[in-house]
């Protein structure tokens, strides 16, 4: 795909054979467009949900899927919220395009992501995209990040879509106190969420 700034990035598209009208943008973890996320897109499509998984590292690592030997560490800090947001908007526009599949596009769009992608999932709700929901898996909701993205708890009032936040009960990084800080910010902002 070509982002808003003209940069090209890789994506994996899975079109539902029996569409339900739902579509999902998959935001990977720090590994980028790893085979796991391509498989996840296929599993969504098997259940009637059009899916698009995107890669964050086209600007710094070139195009293509990211295999197990991909060294993401130098690439993550080179991403910015401006370019990540541009790529998310491009992904959503791609899903909304009537060219998505035989002149049809999904009507209800969601984002989902894991870890770095979970944080970006929460932040995608601040981009004015009219998303039906945000499904974040252990996306760090507080504090600084390796690439300068805002903390979702700090911008809770700007999140305009319902949130389903999924946490690991034994996670020693995203502790119960961190989760409660995020929930308190969402509650104070009167946001619709479930955790």
What does this molecule look like?
The protein is α/β, with parallel strands linked by helices. It has helices at residues 35-46, 58-61, 81-96, 116-124, 176-188; strands at residues 11-14, 22-27, 49-54, 108-114, 133-137, 163-166, 193-194. Strands 1-3-2-4-5-6-7 form a seven-stranded mixed sheet, sandwiched between helices. Strand 6 (163-166), helix 5 and strand 7 form a beta-alpha-beta unit. The longest helix is centred in the middle third of the chain and has 16 residues, at 81-96. The protein is globular and about 45 Å long. The mean pLDDT is 97.
Poorly predicted sequence stretches spanning 5 or more consecutive residues: none
Give the number of helices: 5
Estimated share of beta-strand residues? 15-25%
What is the count of β-strands? Answer: 7
Major sheet: order of its strands? 1-3-2-4-5-6-7
Order of helices and strands: EEHEHHEHEEHE
Q: Give the proportion of residues in helices.
A: 25-40%
What's the multimeric state? single chain
| Straight-line N-to-C gap | 33 Å
Radius of gyration: 16 Å
**Main β-sheet description:** 7 strands, mixed
Structural class comes to alpha/beta
Mean pLDDT: 97
The rough form would be described as globular
Attribute tags:
alpha/beta; 195 residues; seven-stranded mixed beta sheet
Task: Produce the secondary structure layout.
Blueprint: E1 11-14, E2 22-27, H1 35-46, E3 49-54, H2 58-61, H3 81-96, E4 108-114, H4 116-124, E5 133-137, E6 163-166, H5 176-188, E7 193-194
Parallel strand pairs: 2-3, 2-4, 4-5, 5-6, 6-7
Antiparallel strand pairs: 1-3
